[in-house]
């Protein structure tokens, strides 16, 4: 049974709320426990697949796990919801760079920069 371990018992992941899963996913990610982070991020995704903050995190987790295709896919999902989510473009650029497509990576880096600094009149 998968769950959150304490000294006395294991809490099933299915009863942990969405916000707690997201917090645990971030904590696991920051401590390099990417499989555990993925488990919590996926629990959030099952409850709310349109959370762009979670999609961004899932993309980052997949990047660390070297699954660049899923990294790109999760960032594309987030961009379908919020096309101005600049961090997603940067993450996709990093994934494309790792996949060896430098030209596409550069295009995504430029899009990320343009999303951060929109054109001024």
TrEMBL record:
Protein name: Putative UDP-N-acetylglucosamine--peptide N-acetylglucosaminyltransferase SEC
Gene3D superfamilies hit by this protein: Tetratricopeptide repeat domain
SUPFAM superfamilies, sorted: TPR-like (SSF48452)
Organism: Aegilops tauschii (Tausch's goatgrass)
Gene Ontology MF terms in the entry: protein O-acetylglucosaminyltransferase activity
Biological-process GO terms, alphabetical: protein O-linked glycosylation
PROSITE patterns: TPR (PS50005)
Matching InterPro entries: OGT (IPR037919), TPR-like_helical_dom_sf (IPR011990), TPR_rpt (IPR019734)
């Amino acid at each position: 049974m998968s769950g959150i371990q304490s000294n006395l018992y294991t809490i099933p992941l299915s009863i942990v709320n969405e916000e707690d899963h997201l917090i645990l996913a971030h904590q696991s990610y920051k401590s390099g426990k990417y499989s555990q982070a993925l488990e919590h991020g996926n629990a959030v995704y099952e409850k709310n697949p349109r959370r762009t903050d979670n999609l961004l995190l899932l993309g980052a987790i997949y990047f660390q796990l070297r699954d660049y295709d899923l990294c790109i896919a999760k960032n594309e999902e987030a961009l379908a919801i919020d096309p101005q989510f600049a961090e997603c473009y940067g993450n996709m650029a990093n994934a494309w760079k790792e996949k060896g497509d430098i030209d596409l990576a550069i295009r995504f880096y430029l899009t990320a920069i343009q999303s951060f600094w929109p054109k001024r009149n």
